[in-house]
Amino acid sequence: MAELMLLGLxxxxxxTADVLDEVRELGVRDEQITVMSHVPYAARIFGRKPAxxxxxxxxxxxxxxxxLLAFFITFLTPQIYRLHVGFQExxxxxxxxxxxxxxxxxxxxxxxxxGFLLQNRFPILTRRMYDERIxxxxxxxxxxxxxxxxERVVGVFEKHHARxxxxxxxxxxxxxxxxHLLFWGAVxxxxxxxxxxxxxxxxxxxxxPWINTMADTVSVGAQEGPRLAAPAxxxxxxxxxxxxxxxxxxxxxxxxxxxxRGKALFGINCAMCHGLAGDRQGAEVGxxxxxxxxxxxxxxxxxxxxxxxxxxxxxxNRMPSLAxxxxxGETWDVVNYVRSLSQ
Length: 343
Ligand code: HEC
What we know:
Layout: E1 3-10, H1 13-25, E2 33-36, H2 55-80, H3 93-119, E3 139-146, H4 147-159, E4 165-169, H5 178-202, H6 213-216, H7 256-269, H8 271-274, H9 296-301, H10 305-314, H11 328-340
Helix pairs in contact: 2-3, 7-11, 10-11
The structure holds heme C.
């Protein structure tokens, strides 16, 4: 029995402060002394060093981590996975603000929670001496000291009329929860790994040929009737797509304005499959469609204007119908743009 644990109870703050001073004079270090009370007292009342402040740094750190995560999701992800969005912002403000707000709030709360646990000295691995009377208002002073010093500490306790003096062999107070700590640490690490697995898929680190409904579905909807071939020599202009008897020419001349509109519309509706220049370059969706022509300009050259128009409005095999995205006028703008690709 080389060291002893002592617990004395005192009924007021002044006595406790005196006891602590005298115990420290006996050469007991501050870390070997624990003061327990049913209400919180500032550490300096007892002449002790204030406890380390974990709460604030963890809360602020949480906020910073949240902001970093939000930055990654809103600014870096669209850079890594570029999509043609026409003239739209790649990182639009309103949804970005929401993502920042949510992630910063979430991580701040998490940081505050962890900081709070650490502030309360979690995890406590050693058994503590305790007496229920501390809950009733007494102040407990727990001291760990070598045998000879311990005897003198008991003397100090008795001099100040300690209510109870518990003494125990310090060997009974070895840290014991380490296995629990390792276990819960492993559980937390396992949880983090499980959470990270879906990220491997969403960031294409692990690529799985998921069922891609757009690629695997023929573009004919169940509600659509059998398709009518365009009557010979017909050209749709406005309103109903097929108008018989019109001359086979483009109704919209390829003016600079029409080409500019066509390019923007092509960027929004076609580039993800065909690439902005029709050469499949940067076509994020197109890479799932090996049958997409390598040169749209060349392929289009073999099609008449109205055939081109019909491919866009009706789709072809796995190319979807874009009639809902483009009005007939806009479709002609796109036709003009596709024609201009060959030059
Ligand atoms: C979802 C992907 C996708 C989108 C979006 C898409 N296409 Fe296609 N496109 C295809 C595929 C797949 C083919 C090959 C069809 C086939 O020949 O089986 C194709 C073929 C074509 C052809 C050649 C047709 C033929 O008869 O050989 C043209 C022209 C064309 N697309 C133009 C467009 C234009 C213009 C747009 C935008 C308004 C567009 N595509 C949007 C997937 C797409």
